[in-house]
Amino acid sequence: MSPPRKRSLTLRGHATSVSLEAEFWAAFRRIAADRGRSVSALAAEIDAQRDLDTGLASAIRVFVLTDLERRLGQRAGGME
After folding, report:
1. Which fold has domain 5-79?
2. What is the pTM of this model?
């Protein structure tokens, strides 16, 4: 696992930075591409839905995990 790397994003016209491990950045970029969205656009959607007590980096990690669980569930459901 790699250490967190800070990247700049633009959310609703405002610059912000988010620190994620390279593995999470790669997965997040893949999910954004699969959905036809930019990383900043997807991050803005997550930002708008997160609880104010939850940091954006944590919300993105949970989003990536939830997406993976959904994909695995679909795959497992098709195997039964």
Report:
1. Ribbon-helix-helix fold (1.10.3990)
2. 0.87
SS3 label, residue 53? coil
Q: Is the pLDDT of residue 77 over 80?
A: no
Quote the CA–CA distance of 30 and 35 in Å, as a whole number: 9
Which H helix or E strand runs over 12?
Answer: none
Q: Using an 8 Å Cβ cutoff, are 44 and 52 in contact?
A: no
**b/e map of 27-54 (b: 16 or more CB within 10 Å)?**
bbeebbeeeeeebbebbbebbeebeeee
Residue 25, CB-side half-sphere exposure with 13 Å CA sphere = 15
Cα–Cα dist 27/15, whole Å: 22
